[in-house]
């Protein structure tokens, strides 16, 4: 994920926010939600490893990291960074059930991800 200060430098190279960014912040985010935080959330969704993880979590009632490793073909220890990113961006969360740690979509993750996947399914069905 891109560092917030790096992203801010890129979008504000001349010290001014673009009109487009100002409109997003005012009209879409209501000057309440943070532009960089929301952009980071979208970047987390678009990750090559995280996108399939989100899909798997959307279809299950929680998965252990070992199950995710098996399903993604990655080493379990390599997934923790991605799972942490999903948690940091409030798209996923860890829960403990019967002494085991499970990962699942957060309420926000569910609200953002399910419509995205539904749209993709509909587009695939149209073809």
From TrEMBL:
Residues 1-12 have a biased composition (Basic and acidic residues). Residues 1-20 are annotated as: Disordered. PROSITE patterns: HTH_ARSR_2. It comes from the Archaea. Gene3D superfamilies: Winged helix-like DNA-binding domain superfamily/Winged helix DNA-binding domain (1.10.10.10). This is Helix-turn-helix domain-containing protein. Residues 30-127 form the HTH arsR-type domain. Coiled coil: none annotated. One of its GO terms (molecular function) is DNA-binding transcription factor activity. InterPro entries: HTH_ArsR_DNA-bd_dom, WH-like_DNA-bd_sf, WH_DNA-bd_sf. It comes from Halorientalis regularis.
